[in-house]
Write a structure and sequence with these properties.
alpha/beta, two-stranded antiparallel ribbon, 25% helix, globular
């Protein structure tokens, strides 16, 4: 009898977050699920790893077809140690999310949820990140389920090219205008820091800001999200700018 697919799941909101638990319920229809997720919120950690202190992994839940572990490391650590010690065999799929918050445009570079799938991708495992454009701890994730099922089914059937993963973002709406395969939008954060008086003198700084989209092309992920589309952005782990590489051959360096 053929083994059920093995799916490794992590996130950056912590193993108790509603998003990851909703994701697990969807994924259990597709295979056996192992969750190795941070013990608390680790948003904005990107691909950070823990190298100077030990980390602890604790079993939270064990039942047929599902194991859940809490990890004191980063999202990337969770995938590393999950693959090393807490899965019975090489996973067929790595899934990050469902994140509480948007990971389109340059936010993908900061995202711990994307750190999960980039680590999976670097290990040669098909990997998908799912994010909802809401930071509400009790957000409604049910509108995402049908799309998640379609994407997971397609990736399990077709696979992904080595070195490529998927960054999927959902608008925070009960219905969608459709699904678009998009490129990463151009944009950036502005007014990123707010100064406050420190009670012992001087100032301390709090990260804040607003995201400004620098284009209006609906085939750019953030723009498509603003127009109520689910976005799928194929993402490569190879950062090489091949066009500039060719141009630099003429620099005479």
């Amino acid at each position: 009898m053929k083994e059920r697919p093995l799916i490794l799941v992590s996130n950056d909101d912590g193993y108790q977050a509603k998003g990851v638990n909703c994701l697990v319920e969807v994924l259990r229809d597709f295979g056996d699920v192992v969750v190795v997720a941070p013990h608390t919120g680790r948003s904005g950690k990107g691909c950070a790893i823990t190298s100077e202190v030990p980390i602890k992994v604790s079993e939270v839940l064990s039942e047929p077809g599902l194991k859940v572990y809490s990890c004191t490391g980063t999202p990337c650590d969770c995938v590393k140690i999950g693959c090393h010690a807490f899965v019975p065999r090489r996973p067929d799929l790595v899934v990050g999310g469902i994140n509480h918050g948007d990971n389109s445009a340059v936010n993908a570079h900061y995202s711990g949820t994307m750190g999960v799938v980039i680590e999976g991708c670097m290990k040669g495992i098909p990997s998908i990140a799912f994010s909802l454009c809401s930071h509400d701890a009790d957000a409604d994730f049910t509108p995402t389920y049908d799309v998640i099922r379609k994407i997971v089914s397609a990736v399990l059937e077709r696979g992904l090219p080595v070195g490529s993963c998927l960054n999927v973002n959902f608008p925070d709406t009960p219905t969608y205008a459709g699904v678009k395969v998009c490129r990463q939008a151009a944009g950036n954060w502005v007014n990123e820091w707010a100064a406050h008086d420190h009670p012992r003198g001087g100032e301390w700084w709090w990260l804040t800001g607003e995201f400004v989209v620098a284009e209006d092309d609906v085939l750019a992920d953030r723009v498509a999200l603003d127009n109520n589309y689910v976005t799928i952005t194929p993402t490569r782990i190879d950062f090489t700018d091949y066009s500039l590489l060719e141009d630099m051959k003429q620099w005479g360096l």
